[in-house]
Amino acid sequence: MLGTCSQVQAQSFPKNQKSPWVWVELGTGFNQYNGNAKLFLSTLQVVPQYTLIEGRMRGGVVAGTFYQGTRFGLHGGPRITLKLLEGKEILTAASFNIQVFGELLFATRTQAEKDRQWLGGGLGFELDDLVVLSIKVHRDLQQPITYAQFGLAYHLTRPVPPVHPEFE
């Protein structure tokens, strides 16, 4: 395993080839209404992104579902991700980066409510362009509700490097 990881080229935020980078993201946390931590929050999202500035910035959309303790809903909107710092070889990963991201989930809907908007962002720690651990906070723009959660994202479309490149 260590030999394979050392052969991976560090490619944080490389340019997309023909298709977007597609991430699947799972989040869990809580929402706070009028200052009281209240209900469980969970999200499942798909986040396709394109490289806007190679090595520095990605942009795309968020589309997903959420459960906020009493009802299910859908949300969607744009996301911008900016890389702050990158490094090589941490734990078993060949590369890592620390990033901030912002999103406006303007298409937030539940069965009872339509046209809600969440504005927020977070801090992410990405390993090998493969997984991201994140902390996110959003604010509902129509009601005094704050949503906070931890997230785990997996990169579905990451090119897999050859195990033995010397044989190619």
Model description:
By secondary structure, the chain is mainly β. It has one domain (2-10, 20-159): Porin, CATH 2.40.160. Helix content is 3%, strand content 67%. It has one helix at 2-6; strands at residues 21-33, 36-53, 57-67, 72-90, 93-110, 116-127, 131-140, 145-155. It has an 8-stranded antiparallel beta barrel with strand order 1-2-3-4-5-6-7-8. A hairpin with a 4-residue loop joins strand 3 (57-67) and strand 4 (72-90). The longest helix is centred in the N-terminal third of the chain and has 5 residues, at 2-6. The chain is globular and about 45 Å long.
Which terms would index this structure?
1 helix, Porin, disordered N terminus, mainly beta, globular, eight-stranded antiparallel beta barrel, 168 residues, 8 strands
Write a compact overview of the structure shown.
With 168 residues, the protein is an all-beta fold.
What's the helix and strand layout?
Elements: H1 2-6, E1 21-33, E2 36-53, E3 57-67, E4 72-90, E5 93-110, E6 116-127, E7 131-140, E8 145-155
Low-pLDDT stretches are: 1-11
- If helices are DSSP runs of H or I spanning 4 or more residues, what is the number of helices? 1
Mean pLDDT: 82
* Alpha-carbon Rg, integer: 17 Å
Which CATH-level-2 architecture?
A: Beta Barrel
CATH class: Mainly Beta
End-to-end CA span: 20 Å
Percentage beta strand? over 45%
Q: What share of the residues lie within helices?
A: under 10%
Q: Within the largest sheet, what's the order of strands?
A: 1-2-3-4-5-6-7-8
Could you say which overall geometry the principal axes of the C-alpha atoms support?
globular
Biggest sheet architecture: 8 strands, antiparallel, barrel
Number of strands: 8
Protein structure class = mainly beta
Order of helices and strands: HEEEEEEEE
Write down the CATH topology.
Answer: Porin
